[in-house]
Amino acid sequence: MTQIYHGFRDLGFGVLFSLGGLLISLFFSYPTTLGHSWLPDPLFRIYTSSIHKAKHGSDSGVYSSEGNLRLPLFDEMFEKMDTSLGGNTSVVDTNAHEGSLGVGDLFRLHAKNRVAADPAGWSFAAMEWWTTWLLLQREGRIWEKDLRAVYDGSLFWRIRDERKKNGGVTQGYGWQDWIGGLWNNGTWKTWEVKDEPKVKLEMGREL
């Protein structure tokens, strides 16, 4: 469980949010343990070799039930939900255009993926997308390249290294953004204030 806490901290999340991240072990330890034993793990460890057993309902379907990344479904998610395309991909060079998902797009995606009688899946999906947006947002949107790196796992190492070597990363949304946006501009959507200077996410800043 301590690895999860330190992992969130390495990504720039605050103490309280990182403590909340320990719920991951509470909810997903036993499903992954089933790949090895019927008995729960007393230390709430997550077994990555059977991580696919923790797959929940009402998700995007980008991961298969065997834990494989299905890139056609990943691409389809942006083709259908990316409102920056204006709903018409035929007039856009999709090879040159980097897709992105805004807050409204994520709400619509979550609603589209909800299946009946699955409140646990609805809740897990909402928490996962919320956390992903807090970590990745630039200009209020999650960008396709960044999200792809989440799915293949490479992004977490990249952010950790950037925070250590370069002193900060230039994306994400923290409580300072929320308070500062409301105080200075009357809106939490800081990216909509065109004259606002871009603020660098310094190493000590927390999400």
The overall pLDDT, averaged over residues, is 87
Major sheet details: 2 strands, antiparallel
Shape: globular
Give the end-to-end Cα distance, rounded to a whole number of Å.
Answer: 20 Å
Report strand order across the widest sheet. Answer: 1-2
Would you tell me the structural class of the helices and strands?
Answer: mainly alpha
How much helicity do the residues have? 40-55%
Count of runs of 4 or more consecutive helical residues? 9
What does this structure look like?
The chain is mainly alpha-helical and 207 residues long. The chain is built from 9 helices and 4 strands, in the order ααααβααβααβαβ. The chain has helices at residues 2-10, 15-20, 23-33, 71-81, 103-113, 119-136, 144-152, 154-165, 175-185, and strands spanning 100-102, 141-143, 168-169, 201-202. It has a two-stranded antiparallel sheet with strand order 1-2. Strands 3-4 form a two-stranded antiparallel sheet. Residues 87-95 and 195-205 have low confidence and may be disordered.
